[in-house]
Amino acid sequence: MRQEANASILPVPEGEPAPKLSLNDFIIKALALALQRVPAANAVWAEDRILRFKSSDIGVAVALDGGLVTPVVRQADRKSFSRFPPR
């Protein structure tokens, strides 16, 4: 599926690097959509109540030489894979 998706990416202007979808891209999107299907899982305990979120923000751990960072993909449920032809 990943190879098929990468093959369908629109060409980029000359000099720009061609984007490549990784397995992580698909995992992040799947997690975000799963949180939308199960809203009770997209929640946190806040002392006296449960807060439920409308969007799915996914944290991704990234190992660097100096340690570990965790950028957050905000509203991952609404993001699309870029440069795909319209269907």
Please state the CA-atom Rg, rounded to the nearest Å. Answer: 16 Å
> What class do helices, strands and sheet pairing give?
alpha+beta
**pLDDT averaged residue by residue:** 85
Q: Give the assembly state of these chains.
A: single chain
Number of beta-strand segments: 6
Task: Name the helicity range.
Answer: 10-25%
DSSP helical segment count = 2
Main sheet overview = 2 strands, antiparallel
From the N-terminal CA to the C-terminal CA, the straight-line distance is 16 Å
What is the molecular shape? extended
In terms of DSSP E residues, the strand content is 15-25%
List the secondary-structure elements in sequence, H or E. HHEEEEEE
Uncertain residue segments: 83-87
Strand order in the largest sheet: 1-2
Name its key features:
87 residues, alpha+beta, two-stranded antiparallel sheet, 6 strands, disordered C terminus
What does this structure look like?
By secondary structure, the protein is α+β, with helices and mostly antiparallel strands. 24% of the residues lie in helices and 21% in strands. It has a two-stranded antiparallel sheet. The protein has a two-stranded antiparallel ribbon with strand order 3-6.
Topology:
Blueprint: H1 2-7, H2 23-37, E1 43-46, E2 49-52, E3 58-59, E4 62-64, E5 67-69, E6 72-73
Antiparallel strand pairs: 1-2, 3-6, 4-5
Quick summary:
By secondary structure, the chain is α+β, with helices and mostly antiparallel strands.
